[in-house]
Amino acid sequence: MDETRTPFRKLDKDLRRIGHVEYATQAVGRPLIAPALGLAFIVFAAMLSALFLGLDDTPFVVICAAAFGAYMALNIGANDVANNMGPAVGARVLTMGGALLVAAVFESAGALVAGGDVVETISKSIVDPAGIASTSVFVGAMLAALVSSAMWVNLATAIGAPVSTTHAVVGGVMGAGIAAAGLSAVSWGTIGTIAASWVISPVLGGAIAAAILAFINWRIVNRPDILGAARRWVPVLVALMAGAFAAYLTLKGLKKLVAVDLSGALLIGVAAGLAGYLLSVPVVRRRARGLENRKRSLKTLFALPLILSAALLSFAHGANDVANAVGPLAAVVHVASSGDVTAQVAIPKWVMVIGAFGISVGLFLFGPRLIRMVGDQITKLNPVRAYCVALSAAVTVILASTLGLPVSSTHIAVGGVFGVGFYREWDEGRRVRRADGGRKAGKRHGVEERKRRKLVRRSHFMTIVAAWVVTVPASALLSALIYLAIRLALS
Questions:
Q1: DSSP character for 404?
Q2: How close are the terminal C-alpha atoms of the chain, in Å?
Q3: Residue 213 and residue 230: Cα distance in Å, rounded?
Q4: pTM of the predicted structure, to 2 decimals
Q5: Where are the alpha helices (DSSP H) in 409-457?
Q6: Among candidates 374, 409, 301, 388, which has minimal Cα distance to 90?
């Protein structure tokens, strides 16, 4: 009996070993799927450039630029889009799959429909074109800027830090410009303005998000009749959102389709706000029926506005930030084909397609990590808090445009998340002191409670702030080194 079973027992052991090997192979191979697909997209972009320009007529430098532009677009999708979708996912209003789908559709639509067809070849006037000695020097500088900015954003994504891709590109152009034409070619006034945005953007975005949350707590959340207050004030907040996003999209997302100045954008915002109020009053009243008079019921009332705001932010982001990926690529294509270094060049449609779909592919392959970090790991978000973050992004851009202040949309969005979290910490401490009979009586207990309940993770705060501060100098140094390597290889 035992002799007959022995071969089967050996066979079972062998099959189990094979099964363990298969599981181990899958575990090892699974993390390689996304990079492999990303590499496939980069190769596709390089082939697309040769297809549209003609295989025999396409300079090799253009094929390389197309590959690097696709690489940058993947990193923009992996890093930047988290700022738009993170709050909605963290608030459990959108699933990760739903957020990826909404973001991909609206990012691509923004890039293809409203993406600017003209871009400054020397990004943000960082470097004087007159300082560029020749077309070959210019092309080398653009390639170095593109590669360095993409590598820096890739590194920031790996460490879990949402950074400004615009600042990365600016740093890349600055570093390559210095290496190619010297310090005198750089517009240091513009660099100073960008440095100011490191502080202005997150502080302003955080303050506005905290102010909106304080208002909602005051007028809705802390009222005895929560639903009655919500029926009265949610339409007002929706009107503010409609007006803010109408003006925001007019200023930032529809420049290609509609040329409107700031005053015209504000008038459009007022009209959209009035329409939003009139439409939302019956909707809010209908959705409020049957809900309990609890804070949790506010999720139903704020869910749809939050989804719409995330979609609109993605549309505006796609329209604006696609140039970070395809701007240097378009400049290389233009110079390689015409031999003329000009201040502005038209972006070909196939270049825009690489940027638009590259952002979506990068979002699907690598975006979930940063989306979870922004939505879950900085501070706890619910629909009301996430709505404050989304609304602050639009309001801050409009306010900054009115005052002439430089801002970064990435810094505003993440600053809004921090602002909401730090406001909650302050509010919790105030409640503890009040419950303990005043500031002096409850000082010791309040300090201990605040130490125990940190509502903002300090480790993420320090990592993100450090990444913001070093983005421009780090990408500049990397770009200068890459440019010098390119010149050495070609000499």
A1: T
A2: 80
A3: 14
A4: 0.86
A5: 409-435, 443-452
A6: 374
